[in-house]
Amino acid sequence: MALVKKCNQPLASVGVMLVAAKPIGDFVDANPTIKMLALSFLILIGFTLIAEGFDVHIPKGYVYFAMAFSFFVEMLNIKIRDRRAKAIETIHLAKKITEDENT
Questions:
Q1: If you average pLDDT over every residue of the chain, what do you get?
Q2: Which 3 state secondary structure label does DSSP give 9?
Q3: Within 13 Å of residue 9, how many CA atoms lie on the same side as its CB?
Q4: What is the pLDDT of residues 15-31, one digit of tens each?
Q5: Which letter, b or e, does each residue of 21-58 get, where b requires 16 or more Cβ atoms within 10 Å of its Cβ?
Q6: What's the whole-model pTM score?
Q7: Dihedral (C-alpha) 29, 34, 37, 43: value to the nearest 10 degrees?
Q8: Distance CA 42, CA 54 (A)
Q9: pLDDT tier, 49 (very low <50, low <70, confident <90, very high otherwise)
Q10: How many Cα atoms within 13 Å fall on the side-chain side of residue 2?
Q11: Which helix (DSSP H) or strand (DSSP E) does residue 68 occupy?
């Protein structure tokens, strides 16, 4: 019975990854700063793995906190950028100037 539970867990994980891959990929493509953040996360993980290879222990909590904090700040930046873009789009002039009014 325990074997059945262990076999279903990887299948569920693969299913979630297949379903989430397209929306996450679209989000990353639409936000270049997220792409840079993801690349910096890969560098951070690589550096941590190399340090572990040299028997230098870096607590995982530090790494996870740095990644979560960076992601949170970037989400705030995206939200602020969207609000500024909406504010610029909604500016309306009181009166349109046309060619007929100038003559």
A1: 84
A2: helix
A3: 5
A4: 999 999 999 999 889 88
A5: eeeeeeeeeebeebeebeeeeeeeeeebeeeeeeeeee
A6: 0.62
A7: -20
A8: 19
A9: very high
A10: 0
A11: helix 60-89
Q: Please state the rounded mean pLDDT for residues 55-68.
A: 93
Helical residues (DSSP H) of 31-59, grouped into ranges: 32-53
Q: Identify the band that residue 73 occupies on the pLDDT scale cut at 50, 70 and 90.
A: very high
AA letter at 58: I
Unique residue bearing structure tokens 């979560």? 68
Paired tokens of 15: 């299913």
Name residue, tokens 């100037």.
Answer: 97
Taking the alpha carbons at both ends of the chain, their separation in whole angstroms is 88
